[in-house]
Amino acid sequence: MPPTNRTTRLVAVGSPLALPCGVILPNRLAKAAMSEQLAQVDGSPSQTLTRLYSAWGRGGAGLLITGNVMIDRRAYVEPRNVTLEDDRHLEAVGNWARAGSRAGAVMVMQINHPGRVAVGPLHRRPVGPSPLRPQAVGFNLRKPRELSTTDIAELRRRYARTADLAVSAGFAGVQVHAAHGYLLSQFLSPIANQRSDRYGGTPANRRRLLLEVVAEVRKAIGPGALLSVKLNSADFQRNGLQESESRDVALALEQAGVDLLEISGGNYEAPAMTGVVADSTREREAYFLRYAQELRARSAMPLMLTGGIRTLDFMNDVLADGAVDVIGLGRPFAVRPDIAAELLAGATEPQTSPGAPRIPLPGADPINSYLQIAWHAANFRRIAAGEKHVGGPGALRTLAAAGAAVTARALTQF
Question: Which CDD domains does the record match to this protein (predicted)?
Fold first, then answer.
């Protein structure tokens, strides 16, 4: 990448971005989605969740993307996910949106359905494109029910309904989660999707549901709201979604009018999104940069790159190079809620923007991945309480606390 001077770098990361829908991001730094698990028992946003986003909203990021918001209370990624399927909690959802956007950040709600990797409700059978168990530990205990075409039509309506409610409550838009092995990602995967109807069998059929969901969501929220999609660059599994097919999906999403495509990768079986699955771009700091560069050569769609990015110089180099338009940071925001403001002021890693600490469990990469997520989730309550620089517990305490928390939430919500 061509060298850039300090002035150019500061302008690059701090420059605004006008998206095709007309929404303007005040800068190029985004808090990527992290699952907060801070909803009330009834699925509404809690005051703790609202305070958390108030802290992040003051932290300088131009874009805040929420963690999983479920489109159906019959299927949760984790206990205590926010659920938005009707207007009963719209006031609390509006308070959440205002808390994050009060200081100027653009608030976007990530909407999702877990499909065959649903944690709960425990008494319900999960659903998926095909009746095939995932191979991830803990998710392979229940065989999913294959979705009928009637079920699929209902799912499309649910995505659109949740998106409409989010925008009505004050969110600038939504992000449709089609990555990390959740339902729409499952339809894209030749491993999870072995259907023989119009939703399976060929690459065009496997991406059909995602494109239909995007079309219905756009119709629901209108042309002036932000419509984002989170997409795997690859599943990082043999016979899973590969980069060549993923690029074709991305180009189809561009034609469908998506305003911002976030690039990620992996799933519960191969968690590349947390850095525990090696990729050729990992040594260059960003996990999925090569894919972004190859897609940029064929697409003008605004791109957001998330995964492994930590240093200001690197962020500004890839922005100045034009490979991507937005830099997504996830776990660093669970350590320093104002990290975006520090980066915009010129702070560089490692002095004031350290990468997220890793919990050392050699030889246990998937477990390491789960524990890293739990470690950062444990910090969210501290940030909501006003802490600025957060340090969490070690691996054993994280494991014990995460197990107790998930059990308590499951018993109270399901």
Answer: OYE_like_2_FMN
